[in-house]
Amino acid sequence: MAYVIRWCGLIGLATLVIALTVVHPHVLAANEFLHAFVSHEMLALLIVILTITLASIGNIHLTLSRIVRRFKSHADGELAAAPARQELDSNAWSLFWAFVACVVVLLIKGGFPTDVYIVSLMNGFALIILAFNMAVLHDIYSTVFDLVRQDSTSDEHKPDA
């Protein structure tokens, strides 16, 4: 259900951006904050998020390996951990491709600095990319909290000494 809400939110934001660009492009194009933020500043923010999150995902994979070792059957543990690993990998790639999309947005915005419609649309796309990053981070942290909960209760899978 959370995925549906996130995707509906992103689609709603995209619809709002397109509507504002068509009807009132100056709302997004003439915004001083967006003018200053949708630049190298946004790239800096996204690269910090990407770098820290990739390191965190590495630690989460190590935690998953520790949880898997506690299972009586290593195969059962790997089978149980596979969906979490796939979700984390998917999230990591999503953050990377969002960063690449932001670079493209900034190149397009820089190529047409006087076209109010393109500036408006690119500023809006940058906001969508930022919202997408926040949704991915929320998903990663939800996974972390689930793993912490499982890690504290996984002693039941440990063989008796």
TrEMBL record:
The keyword Transmembrane applies. The keyword Transmembrane helix applies. Keywords: Membrane, Transmembrane, Transmembrane helix. The chain crosses the membrane at residues 41-64, 92-110, 116-137. It comes from the Bacteria. This is Uncharacterized protein.
